[in-house]
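pls design
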């Protein structure tokens, strides 16, 4: 099970990719986020937060190019960075549509995998 997401608040390419990390902070106009252990299947017991804060942006566009979560309790959430309220939630039953547009300039991408990945 793997996932990959690209976010783009502007339409010019500056990419920063950190493969295999669990969390991080992004302030660039665009970037790439991979699940832990990507391209291999992510392991159990992950709780990861990536903050994406681009002061000049009015919205942040997420492009989920690859999303593979098969465990029933694993999930990805997009949270408003200022209020921590869930804006979107994705799991094995409700994967993201390809493009997800979040209004605002501060988003937290939360990834959770339970103790037992099947």
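designed seq:
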């Amino acid at each position: 099970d793997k996932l990959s997401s690209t976010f783009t608040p502007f339409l010019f390419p500056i990419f920063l990719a950190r493969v295999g990390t669990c969390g991080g902070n992004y302030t660039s106009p665009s970037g790439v986020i991979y699940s832990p252990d990507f391209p291999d299947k992510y392991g159990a017991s992950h709780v990861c937060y990536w903050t994406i804060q681009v002061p000049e942006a009015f919205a942040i566009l997420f492009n989920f190019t690859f999303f593979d979560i098969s465990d029933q309790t694993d999930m990805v959430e997009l949270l408003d960075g200022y209020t921590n309220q869930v804006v979107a939630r994705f799991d094995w039953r409700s994967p993201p549509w390809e493009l997800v547009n979040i209004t605002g300039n501060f988003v937290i991408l939360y990834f959770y995998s339970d103790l037992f990945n099947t």
